[in-house]
TrEMBL record:
GO terms for molecular function: transmembrane transporter activity. It is a multi-pass membrane protein. One of its GO terms (cellular component) is plasma membrane. This is MFS transporter. Residues 9-404 form the Major facilitator superfamily (MFS) profile domain. It comes from Mycolicibacterium hodleri.
């Protein structure tokens, strides 16, 4: 009975995350319609999503602190309510400032959802299942991207802007009802809040979590693996495929759906592998970063449009970065105690989204300066990714060494303590 309840709680939390991903990605597939509705240039249009991601990334540490104190159920409901409100406002307004504000509200609600759902997993499942279920949470959540790429986009093109976005807001209300009905923080009930801490104590705790090498290893892991596919799916993928590469909207939607299928398959493999070989996790991450950089180099080096098969390869390779980024959360779990796990996961989650917002904004500026959407302007804009890959790899190599030394020192200390306890008296 407990096992059934555990899967019910996880599935309900996962549904809330799927809705959050749907909310996150709706503007990416409706970018051209948004440009017409709000008379927005490429740089202004990128501001919509960039602001959303700025809010998302900036709220991660506060969200983690709140999660450690109030638990998953409260934060998942709060996040769903915020996102539904933001989508409702976006559905009804034609004002550019209000629309931008609506996306900021969506970003704030999105910020608290994912790490709150992740926090449910170690409370409800045994440790050996946590890596795989962490992967499944992240990759199955991307089904929300399928909902935005297919039914939402179909609804948007077949009806009106307001109808499409009101439908998305309704999913948020459904998520609130289900979470309130079915989700508990732990098998024993609500998470018991810790004692009230002063602002100085909270900041000291945040600093302590960040200074742990494993937290920073997770941060750079998330940064290097996640941003390319996020930028592609969240903002510039559909315009790039349709305008620069000459594909139809239907093909673009199918490729985004294919991206989710690849991520799900890759996530299962990565989850099983990292669970069995935890000391090889960083090598998987480095291989994913290298493959992302390599496939983009091949595509961008072409003097003209890429053949469809190469675009399929591109989507497949960068999509592995989504589940690859989940390894960062496993690093956070390994090197942090349960009491501060929410804060650590929030810090890890900042990595990829900070990188994503920097790349999205830089691409918007480059596209605007290069004269708008074209093959050459997109070709130039995508090159900004290389700076992030270099930074992430350097960060991974440095923090990996520090984390390994710290783990080795801790193992030696425990061994000495065991020896001293078991040593015969003299």
């Amino acid at each position: 009975m407990v096992r059934v309840r555990a899967w019910t709680v996880w599935a309900t939390g996962l549904l809330a995350y799927i809705v959050a991903v749907l909310d996150r990605t709706t503007l990416g597939v409706s970018g051209l319609e948004a440009a017409d509705r709000f008379a927005a240039s490429p740089s202004v249009l990128s501001t919509f999503v960039v602001l959303q991601v700025v809010v998302y990334a900036g709220a991660q540490v506060p969200a983690g602190v709140l999660l450690d104190r109030y638990g998953s159920r409260v934060l998942i409901v709060t996040g769903a309510a915020l996102m539904a409100s933001g989508q409702l406002l976006l559905a009804l307004t034609e004002s550019l400032p209000l629309a931008i504000s609506a996306r900021a509200i969506v970003g704030l609600g999105d910020a608290v959802t994912f790490i709150s759902v992740l926090r449910l997993v170690p409370h409800w499942f045994p440790p050996r299942q946590v890596p795989l279920l962490t992967q499944l949470t992240g990759i199955c959540g991307q089904l929300g991207q399928v909902l935005s790429a297919l039914p939402f986009l179909t609804l948007l093109t077949g009806t009106t802007w307001a109808t499409a976005y009101l439908s998305v807001a309704a999913f948020g209300v459904l998520a609130i009802v289900l979470v309130l009905t079915l989700v508990k923080d732990t098998p024993h009930g609500r998470v018991i809040a810790a004692e009230n801490l002063s602002a100085r104590a909270v900041l000291s705790s945040v600093k302590t979590v960040w200074l742990r090498p494993g937290t920073r290893l997770g941060f750079f892991t998330h940064m290097g693996t996640q941003f390319s596919v996020t930028v592609f799916c969240l903002m510039w993928g559909v315009p790039y495929l349709t305008v620069a590469q000459g594909q139809s909207t239907g093909v673009a939607g199918a490729l985004l759906t294919f991206s989710v299928a690849v991520a799900i398959a890759a996530g299962i493999v990565i989850g099983i592998f990292t669970g069995r070989y935890p000391h090889r996790r960083s090598w998987i991450v480095l291989a994913i970063v290298a493959s992302n950089a390599l496939v983009w180099t091949v595509v961008l080096a072409l003097p003209g449009r890429a053949p469809l098969w190469l675009l399929v390869v591109l989507i497949a390779v960068i999509s592995v970065g989504g589940p690859g980024s989940m390894v960062g959360f496993d690093f956070a779990r390994t090197f942090n105690p349960s009491a501060t796990l929410g804060t650590a996961q929030g810090m890890v989650n900042m990595g990829g989204f900070i990188a994503s917002l920097l790349v999205m904004q830089a691409m918007g500026i480059i596209l605007g300066a290069a004269g708008g959407y074209s093959f050459e302007s997109f070709r130039l804009a995508w090159t900004v990714q290389y700076a992030i890959w270099v930074l992430a790899v350097v960060g991974i190599l440095i923090t990996r060494g520090k984390a390994r030394r710290l783990m080795k020192a801790e193992q030696e200390r425990l061994l000495l303590e065991t020896f001293d306890v078991n040593a015969p008296e003299r």
